[in-house]
Amino acid sequence: MAWREVRWPEGVYCVACGSHDVECRTSSYRGHLRRYHCLACDKWFSDVTDTTLAHSKVDLPRWFYLLRELDKGRPISQIQPEIGVTYKTALRMARIVREALYEHRDQWRSLLQGEVEADDIHVKGGQQGRQVTHREPRERGLKERGRGTYEGDRPLLCAWVARDGPGTLLELRRDAGKHALFDSAWRHIEPGSRIDTDTWSGYNLLDAAYEHHSVKHSEQYVTAEGVHCNTAEAEWSIFKPWWRQFRGVAKRHVYQYLIQYEFKRTYRDRSAPERWEMMLGFLYVFLTRWLGFPADGYSSLPVH
Ligand SMILES: [Zn+2]
What we know:
alpha+beta, six-stranded mixed β-sheet, three-stranded antiparallel β-sheet
């Protein structure tokens, strides 16, 4: 089982003394867990000893089922009756999974590079995404965009999408000024990369660190030099139906949903089981850390 590979990548060791001299006494404990006996110190333990799961009423198969269904993009309201926990518990479980993905984002994300496209939408009231007025006259477009703030009801969601390769990054910004956009680019895109945007002035600062090209959308989609944002715009057509399922996401939770989307999109070329395995790994680190158990193994436990 995947969990065992995550927890014991270098083989089972005793949770009390660290010895690898352990024997597996029953292959099935509580249905799916193994139980071990340490020959060095006589301690009994299981696959979940010293993890949150040992105290949780939610067993591993349920966690695993939830991971799998979340990866499909299904909302909790649908998954909850299938795993037989309360809605509140299911929601908490989903938040833990998403938070684990968020906490470990630097491990699975890498800087976008090569040719990158930018595009932005306002997410109305933390709900369904609405396209910015790209096709409307320029003056009006500028006015509309400048007003969208996090505090208002239309926070700006910007997307950086690598043209070749799976890198996709969505970020909810507190404000939509050019400094905020540059900051976002700087943290997520390799300096020197090419970035294609539309002619909105919010992207102006990108020139300082990137090969920045823009296309005036009121006139054309692709310039003669091949500048376009079609890949980024296509991303919205994938994002919006996915987003629409989660009606009424509170603003403070939006980042959790974005990170889940981003993870799936970034690893879309991998098989679903490979994504589950990764998620399970992050979940394990996250859950066990809560108990103060070091995720990187026994060696960092204090020696008595
Ligand atoms: Zn032992």
